[in-house]
Amino acid sequence: MNKYTYFKILSVMLVSLLYVGCSDSFLELDNPNGITDQTFWQTEKDLESGLATVYKALSENSDGSYYQRTNPQLVEGRTENFTVSTDVVGRYNIGTFISTMSDWQIATLYNWCYRGIFRANQVIHYSNQIKNIDENKKNQFVAEAKFLRALNYFNLANEWGAVPIVTSLAESSDDYFKAKSPIEEVWQQVVTDLQEAAPHLPVSYPADQAGRITNGAAIAFLGKAYLYQEKWDQAVAEFEKLVLDEGKYGYDLMEDYAHNFDGLHENNKESIFEIQYSRLRPDVWGGKGATSTVIAQEVAGPKIGWQEIRPTKTLLEAFLKEKTAEGDFDPRATTTIVWNYPGAMYYQKPFLELYADTAVWTKKYQNWWNENEGDYRSALNEHVMRYADVLLMLAEAYTMKGDVAKAAPLVQRIRNRAKLVNKEPEMKQWTKEVMMKEIQHQRNLEFVREMLHWFDLRRWGLLEETLRLSKVEGWQNYSSKFQYYPIPESELNNNPALTQNDPW
Amino acid sequence: MKKLLHALGMIGKYYLYGFAFQLLFINLMNAAPTKGQSSFNLKEVRLSLNLEGVSLSESFNIIKEKTDFSFIYDKEVVKRSTAVDLKIENQSLESVLLSLAASHHLSFKQVDNRISVKLVKKSIPEPAVSVETTLTGTVVDKAGQPIPGVTVSVLGSTKGTATDLDGKYQLSADEGSTLVFSFIGFVSQQILVGTQKIIDVTLAEDMASLEEVVVVGYGTVRKSDLTGSVSVLDAKAINTQIVNNVGDAVQGKVAGVSIESMGGAPGKEMRIQIRGAGSLTNNNPLILVDGVPVSSLRNISPSNIHSMQVLKDASAAAIYGSRAANGVILIETKLGKKGEIQFDVNIDHGVHSLAKKIAVLNADEWIMVNTAARAAAGLGPSDLALEPEVTGEGTNWQDEMYVTAPTTNYEIAARGGSETVNYNLAIGYLDQKGVVTQTAYDRLNLQARSEYTKGKLKLGANIFLSKEFQDQVASDGGGRGDVIESALLSSPATKIYQDERDLVALPNKMPGSGSNVIGLLHLHRNEQTMYNAFINNFLEYEILDGLKVKSNVSLKGDFSHYLYNRPSYADQTTYSMGTQTGNTNGELAENTSTSLFWQIENTVSYNKIFDDHSLNFVAGQSSQKSSYRNIGGSIFNLPKGITVLSAGSVNPSIYGTANESTLLSYFGRAIYSFRQKYILTATLRRDGSSKFSKENRYGYFPSIAAAWNAIGQDNYEAINSPVSNLKFRGSYGVLGNQEIGNYQFLGTITPSHIYSIGEPAQLWTGSIQTSYPAVGVKWESTSTSNIGFDLGLWSGKFELTFDYFNRITSDVLLRVPVPLSVGVAEAPFGNSGEISNRGYEALAAYYYEKNEFAFSVTGTFSSIRNNVEKLSSGSQVLEGGKATLHGDVVNYTKQGYPIYSFFLLKTDGLFRSIEEVEAHSKDGQLIQPNAQPGDIRFVDQNNDGQIDGVDRVYSGSPFPDFEAGLRLDGNWKRFDLSVFFQGTYGNKIMNGFSTYLESVREGGNYSKKTLNSYTFNKDSDFPRLIITDPNRNGVDNSDRFLEDGSYLRVKTITLGYNVAENVIHRLSMSKARVYVGAQNLFTFTNYSGYNPEIGGGGQNGSSMAGRGVEFSVYPLTRSYHVGLQLNF
Fold first, then answer.
1. I need a surface site. Which of A147, A277, B365, B517 has the fewest CB within 10 A?
2. pLDDT on residue A4
3. Is the pTM of this model over 0.80?
């Protein structure tokens, strides 16, 4: 090599040094995975896409989302109707009243309510910047978001009581630290959102959108919010809108109670709002890509599933209190649980082939007509509210107002569907107290496993007595502070503006 | 040629070690010189010279031209010398050299046709009066070869001489005085002068005193010029043959570097941490293999490593700026030396087995304990206890799952070189079975490295390829899915097989239990295949003497394929599990990912020695880009035995993600040395990263360091003092960390939230922002102060290196916790905290050699105190890892404590009576209202009358008080023995296994300890058995399950035998060694789990939060090896 060659090599190296080096644009990269908040929220499609995630928050996380596999166990596990398996200790502790404010399960549940709220707040906030959108569509999407925000605040008020209210997006990190509002204000937030949502929601949807929030759902939940605050008049006013105008809303009881839970009649005329599950996606354990729930596998009896919660003898006894007019078992009993009744089949096997004579296991929300729970993915929708609930809530509001006669036909409508004898004439004569007892009994049988009984007992002041009488596992540990969950410890650590709720 | 030789002279170690010793002892033996062998006798070569007023270097040139001898010397030798004044006629070269030696304080040493020149320094005043005797003798090396040029001096006087070319000397000295024999590369010897007239001396080689060069990033420096804290491991220290993983091979050998296994699964990564954990996002050091950054050491074969340098303080690592805050590991692979081609063949066979089993109940015991625990809660016996499938000993799931697993490792390498080409070709293949049945790992490595020199131009190429295959433990994805845990928890009263090969699907009568682990392992496939490749080429040109430009281009690609197959459990040909757990239609998931990386680095370097001053300067620029893309899919309903996605038919699903990042850097470093005694280093690097927004993109990382060679190997003082080397070092610098994932400063919309809607159901896919962006997030920076010293005693027989350091990481990148009510999936990153790591580390070594016996002891010790100085507002707490699937967090990062410390409820023994339960009260209210005698008393720390999370207190941390390693190497005749100990002290482990096994819940097996519980023995400290556990004895965040994780391990023992020369020479070999060895032979620990070394793993994965948390970590194994090494 001669000097000239060296010079050439040197030049190439120096040029490459200059070439690669100096541009700042080399460090400017776009995220290839997606869009940012700067570029999203432009179209109607963006808004509807954002709305999907607000629905999704109710079923996204298997431990935290309110209607996914864990929470039904937490709510039912506290009642006299179920015991909780010891193997998942966090759930067991809640079920037997030895949990503390430090249990992560409570924190996860709390967080997911607010995750839904954060998403709803985005949809509401960004709706205003979207141009070229049909105004009705926009209002409807915002109304759906508000309903879902209200549902999350309903669950927060119902489980925790006084909590922080967040209705806007944080402008800076200072906005993260919100003090809590009294429970009355949380309820007021629920009411406001539902009132604002209702007028913009359609009464019904085409089949391909079945499962979205209707005008009737907003009214029904508004009524429920009033009922839970014992505002009987306002509750009656809302419920009557639906019950006195069934033609408009199309609500009615299904003739067969079991059709609500057989997977073949979802989003039916009795459905006010249900969380949609399907087997369209393969993911098993929840997550943003999952569309199914593993709850059926978790609750199924031995040799099929894991019996994380187990029906008690107390529940069976409640069902056996009154037989049908024809002397059969209440159809709600054989829909909800399985025991050794004549012809009892469970996962295609005669009951005794699987279990001892004394066993009781769960049927409601199980795919018990199949051979097994398959790959753990259940497509059965979880009901957030059924029309039967509206009827009984209206009956309860009437009764609490002292209007027992108006309550009687509503209660009998529920009894009729359960094929129980007609007691309407005599019920009309009952005292408020006797009528409430009947309503309480019917609500228990009607809604077992639908995450209502625990809150009903609390509203009625019957928690301690019911647990004591049933002697359900852990009843000795119960004290009144377990009516509500504590504010999670991690929340107290990270938010200096918060204090623990009494009596925690 | 002169310059090349000079360059060789600068690279002291290679020159001296490579040429002087190897050529002297090997080539002389082989008698291979080329021309005029007879003319290499210095006494026979006669010449006439007139060197009056000629410089020393010119004199050498003149002699060279006349004789064919060339001279090798350091520039220092000629720079400081006066002109020669010598005129001779027809004298022997030997006498010429002796004259020059006398006039210029030089010593000469002939090696073939080369003569090495060395400066001899004397500055000691003469004694007043003395009686002298004349002494003579010969100085030889161990092989009996005479050593010319050895300085023979009288201790405490200026008297001295040098041996001639036959190693002979003559000197007059006082009786009773001491003669000192010293020569570079050999251990000095002192001999008392008595009445003897002849003193013959044999000098031993001194490996330690060779002037080493140390790779410090973008260049090398003489070890004596090093100012930073750098640990060097040579091939001998790394390659212990019986370990095939670099992390394993280095563990315990470098002071200040903590290496922990993340479980014993074959092919598992190890956690490497240099000087503590300063960051919450990333504590991994930057690892460069021949200059190319790599993410893992797993696919590198230890035997292919020439040397490994660990840059620990800011001064050493500063040139790497960003990413170097956690230290830098530089690995240099082997490259052939000039000379004959050499083949290395290594063959190793080993067997691995589980070192320890955990004592759990057998079937009868389980029935008894389970029944007692249920009875205590007023419950009747469980179904399984009433109708056990097996009784007596029952099923021992651990015995069924853990097998003896063979390992085979083959390696072959060819190395060699000439004046212009050096190369190394290596092939390695490792085949390792796991001790968990059906798990395995194999690895194929290929490397071709070469360098080509022509004049001032040098080209290098390095091609590295590896293929790895990992057959991982199966999991069914939830519940008690993990097989390690399931093997412990599966009830001994259940059967594995229905009949032959027909597995029983759990659960049968076991509520809440997982699946039959043996079935999962046989039926599920959980496999990962990885291909890694990099090519690194450089071009270097020396523009002027000492001024070089270098351009380095690297390309790297990592390709990974993951396959998960859960076939239908029914009608499999080999094993089937019936259909009870469902899974009738089979599932397949596949994922392939591609990581590409390129890097271009251009540097200019300048090395110059001016008289007393030397300068080493490098400046450069680096650009790099990483891009990652993955594609995955899954499908159901596959035909039997088919595992391609197209064969499935139900619920197809696809996904893919991508990301990229870039880094643009400029850097410079200058090292100035005055007489090799005072050294100053300054470094500056500027990094720009795409991970930060425009305003916060650039970070500046400066460092400065100084060193003082108080006593160096060239100092004459060293000869008269036991201290042969003493150097003080100090440095300060700032380094950066940017590891927060890409695009964090943007408010990213998360896609693919899928809800189903409508009748019939259809997918409704949503996108939303699930977190707030990390507004204003910037570089995390770590400042390190380091002071240390290197001490050598008795000519390097004893060495001690000690460093004290103080690392302060500020602007710590962390997800500053926000209230749950903010509703975000993850808190945004912020720079919000300060973490300190203070500590010291030491390495001490002692070498001993006598006759046919030699041994060395090397010990490392490090102690680090980690503390979170500041964390956000101060009250905020970062949650760490969990020890159980559904349990609570057990470790937290909190201001004032080490990161990820354990905060746990404090237990205070058992309640022995109802009175004791009642006495544990506050204002008349029982603190533990559900307690009974035999339950645990918890301490109500905040005295609020109840036990909850607020009562948790600091209970220790996963960080040890100190870590230590001790290596003993011995040789006796043809045998060699190496024993390596390693251990930690003072670290804590949260034992998730015990949480399950010792709290008697449904659905699992229990610990043997339950047999001696309070239920059966009122004196026991083990609480009563009650399945409902109303007192929460089994609560997973109490200190009941926190154990001392200290351990001392005999990590490796190897005994080797070198086959006799006459045998191997007949086989044309240069070396043949056979060995037997063992790894993890003994572990002394109080820890009750499988293995106290828990760097993470199990369900906590590789996150720092998993350190010290036992949660389904694949047990470490013990292995025995036999192997053969051949060189020819």
1. B365
2. 61
3. no
